[in-house]
Amino acid sequence: MIEKRDFYINGRWTAPAAARDYAVIDPSTEEPCAVISLGDRADTEAAVAAAKAALPAWRATAPEERLAYVEKILEIYKARYEEMAEAMSLEMGAPIDFARSEQAGAGTWHIENFIRAAKEFEWVHPLGDGTPGAMIAYEAIGVVGLITPWNWPMNQVTLKVIPALIAGCTMVLKPSEEAPLSSLLFAEFIDQAGVPAGVFNLVNGDGVGVGSQLSTHPDIQMISFTGSTRAGKAISIAAAETLKRVVLELGGKGANLVFADCDEKAVKRGVRHMFENTGQSCNAPSRMLVERSYYEKALEIAAQTAAETQTGNPREPGRHLGPVINKSQFEKIQGLIESGIKEGARLIAGGLGRPEGLNKGYYVRPTIFADCTPDMTIMREEIFGPVLSIMPFDTEEEAVAIANDTPYGLTNYLQTQDPVRTNRLLRALDAGMVVANGKSRGAGAPFGGVKASGRAREGGRWGIEEFCDVKSIGGWVE
Ligand code: NAD
User: Fold this and answer.
1) Cβ-contact 444, 461 below 8 angstroms
2) CB 103, CB 155: distance < 8 Å
3) Reduced to 3 states, what is the DSSP secondary structure of residue 2?
4) Which CATH architecture has domain 255-436?
5) What's the pLDDT at 185?
């Protein structure tokens, strides 16, 4: 059992003001694997005060100096990479090979992309031609509160902490209480890198406690939040009184439009993508819409792909899926699978209960429903488990209308080999991100959505801008 009760405040590991133990559950065994403490108001206050005191000096450092700390953090992260992969595998059940390549890899990927973006970032630049002395300056917004979820722990933490450091902000991080071990390790990296005391602070806690204390705190200028749409709304309301900036990365219900002229790997790729991280990704392609002439073939490939998907112990090497995070997610997913059955969707893979041979752990059967209709609960709600809903469509217009008919708008996907249609639909699909034919969005591209998915733009230059105020200057002397 790991004991990690302390918080990182003002450059020191600090005991909580009041002991409130919280057991971190290993989802593969349903047993506690660590104990942390949940913070109280006194801990939040101490962390915010430390960040506030550190702000003037940190904000005034040269960008190159802040960048040097980030480069040091990257070096330490790389040296302690295996510890990070193991922490995430333990706390949220990511299979160890996936934790190494994707979960831990997301951290180094983002830090590297931010370093590149920071080197090109123009902190002060002229407004334009013909307006002499008019300048635009990007300045740190101030003390920021960072609240992260459990599903991609280091992905979320690096997308917030690193640009905040680069921008010159000081901060309080509250990671998910479900998966805090990786963040505690990350705080060790920051400490080891010698980041000045008070610049980065970590307080563990839950949403109603530390989460809402940060959201309402008058000394915090901005909350950067990733998590559920429910909590995003609560934070926006809580933050209104102090008029802070609220940047939200929320849920999704991505559509994947598969046309009959798609490449032969499109359906398999879509199913695998849906199942990746045991379906616990906000940008998962959870609604597959297939052109009717290709529908039967697509169902055949999808069922075959699900049949080939193994589920098992996250400590073992391999490409299998791990468990979902906890009991309540397991039960929520079971309830949604049940609703799919009751509402008349056709199960072509998986279903209720655990996969064969697994009696303990929050394991879910990789599940695929065919013949879904847009009004079904499984087509409307984010399931956050390895459950794919498939339906046929007849025309491009119909497919786009169904894809866009959701409160969410994070990522949509498109599979067609027609270049004209590709570009037409990349623009017509309503989302913060749209990806065709399994391609990448590119290093340093912003991540974020529209509508109920929140409107943050995290990553690269846009991610740094989020932590800045834009100052409009007149009378600058050349
Ligand atoms: P969650 O909203 O329950 O919790 C996220 C974080 O918010 C945790 O740290 C939690 O303690 C805190 N929190 C909860 N209620 C709060 C409140 N009222 N005030 C302040 N803080 C509060 O989400 P989760 O279950 O940890 O994560 C899953 C959700 O995150 C999914 O909906 C998923 O789609 C979303 N997500 C979105 C993105 C994205 O970039 N759009 C990325 C990953 C996950």
Assistant:
1) yes
2) yes
3) strand
4) 3-Layer(aba) Sandwich (3.40)
5) 98
First to last CA, the chain: 61
Ligand 1 centroid – CA 122 distance (Å):
32
Ligand 1 nearest atom to the CA of residue 174, by list position: 9
Q: Name which of 426, 327, 470, 345 is nearest 385 in CA terms.
A: 327
Name the region of 316 (left: φ>0; alpha: ψ -120 to 50; beta: rest). beta
The verdict on the CB of residue 284 being under 6 Å from ligand 1 is no
DSSP letters along 178-191, please?
Answer: TS-HHHHHHHHHHH
User: By the 8 A CB rule, do 201 and 50 touch?
Assistant: yes
Give me the pLDDT at residue 478, please.
84
Residue 301, SS3 per DSSP: helix
CATH class of 2-250+454-473: alpha beta
User: Which atom in ligand 1 lies closest to the alpha carbon of residue 147?
Assistant: 9
- Each residue of 230-265: pLDDT tens digit? 999 999 999 999 999 999 999 999 999 999 999 999
Q: Name the stretches of the chain with pLDDT < 50.
A: none
C-alpha span between 257 and 119 (Å, rounded):
38
Confirm if 6 and 13 have CB atoms less than 8 A apart: yes
**Where exactly are the structural domains of the chain?**
2-250+454-473, 255-436
- SS3 (DSSP) at 322: coil
- Per-residue CA distances from 73 to 68, 78, 153, 195, 329 (Å): 9, 9, 17, 9, 33
> Among residues 86, 102, 249, 466, which one is catalytic?
249
Alpha carbons 406 and 412: distance in angstroms, whole number: 11
Note if 282 is an active site residue: yes
Element (H, E) at 433: strand 433-436
Contact (CB, 8 A) for 93 and 27? yes
Say yes or no: CB of residue 251 within 6 Å of ligand 1. yes
Report pLDDT for 89. Answer: 98
Residue 7 beta carbon below 6 angstroms from any ligand 1 atom: no
The residue ranges of DSSP E strands in 78-218, in sequence order, are: 124-126, 135-140, 143-147, 170-174, 200-202
pTM of the model: 0.98
Task: Looking at the CA of residue 329, tell me the nearest atom of ligand 1.
Answer: 25
Cα–Cα distance for residue pair 330/62, rounded to 1 Å: 48
